[in-house]
Amino acid sequence: MKLEFRFAQTLRLAGLSLLSVVSILTTLAAGVAAQGEDYLATPTPAPWQPASAEAIAQGRTDFNRYCAPCHSADGRGNGPEVKVIPGIKPKDLTTISTRNGGVFPYRDVEATIDGRKIIPSHKRFDMPFWGVSFQQQGREFSPESEAKVRQRIDAIVDYIATLQRP
Ligand code: HEC
After folding, report:
1. How far apart are alpha carbons 19 and 23 in whole angstroms?
2. Nearest one of 38, 155, 42, 161 to 105, comparing CA atoms
3. 32 CA to middle of ligand 1, Å?
4. Are 132 and 115 in contact (CB under 8 A)?
5. Atom of ligand 1 at shortest distance to CA of 156?
6. Atom in ligand 1 nearest the alpha carbon of residue 89
7. pLDDT at residue 21, as a whole number
8. Residues 129, 16 contacting (CB under 8 angstroms)
9. How far is CA 90 from CA 78, 81, 106, 123, 131, in A?
10. What is the CA radius of gyration of the chain?
11. pLDDT digits 0-9 by tens, 86-129
């Protein structure tokens, strides 16, 4: 019961209905081998490019809208939804570098936010799979939609990088 409620709340935050998730997952299952390859099969990604000020601003806008409800605007993890959804503990996003030996792991953070590369563990369901939620409606998993999703998530990653504190 509790878990179902949490999952439903998480979907609500991602702007998805259960029905759309089922249809997206079906599309994903059918199309991932053919279309999703681009993102899912990149074993050695290109080095991270420095972000423009525009990208960081776009990342901040998306972060405040989609992430702050749980992670809070300052990234420390006590957004308003934490009081509504039972038992979730968003990690402090301002200590990612500190917890990683002083280096910000851009690609790992990207993969965590996207969610599709991470083997779905029980806990991972506490956070929406943004790589799915951000797909263009009606054109899910097309190369153009995938490129936009990647660009958007990367901008959020660049914004989170600016929130790091020692
Ligand atoms: C429904 C609440 C919720 C929303 C909305 C949410 N998150 Fe999360 N997030 C979590 C929880 C809970 C965890 C911890 C999951 C775990 O421990 O496996 C987490 C973990 C993370 C992590 C891993 C942090 C670490 O140090 O390992 C990152 C990065 C992250 N979230 C980014 C985002 C971004 C970016 C967004 C918006 C696009 C977002 N989250 C939206 C709940 C949320």
Report:
1. 6
2. 161
3. 24
4. yes
5. 35
6. 12
7. 62
8. no
9. 8, 10, 18, 11, 18
10. 16
11. 888 898 999 999 999 999 999 999 999 998 877 655 556 678 88
Residue to substitute in 91, 95, 110, 125 for testing ligand 1 pocket (most ligand atoms within 8 angstroms of CB): 91
Taking the C-alpha atoms of residue 88 and residue 106, their distance in angstroms, rounded to an integer, is 24
State in Å: Cα 110 to ligand 1 middle.
Answer: 11
Quick: pLDDT tens for 24-81: 665 555 544 444 445 555 556 678 999 999 999 999 999 999 999 999 999 999 999 9
Can you tell me which residue has the tokens 């797909």?
135
Distance CA 70, CA 133 (A): 16
* CB hemisphere CA count around 138 (13 angstroms): 0
Residue-level pLDDT at 125: 67
Dihedral of alpha carbons 95, 42, 152, 53, sign: positive
What's the full length of the chain, in residues? 166
